[in-house]
Amino acid sequence: MAILYPEMEVVEQLKVKPTDGEMSLLRILQVILDDSYEVFFQPFLNGERPDIVVLRKNTVP
After folding, report:
1. For residue 10, what pLDDT is reported?
2. What residue segments make up the domains of the chain, in order of their start?
3. What is the model's pTM?
């Protein structure tokens, strides 16, 4: 199971609620990806806030 940041309980209680599509995608990613993956919801990245970012640990390009 992928590691989600912030945790699903926190995402569900945000003031600005995620769209149904974002919630569905987060749930699917959390279930189908193993724990070598980290899924970030609306991270602050170089002044931007992408909806979802997926990273995998120990991956060599």
Report:
1. 96
2. 3-56
3. 0.86
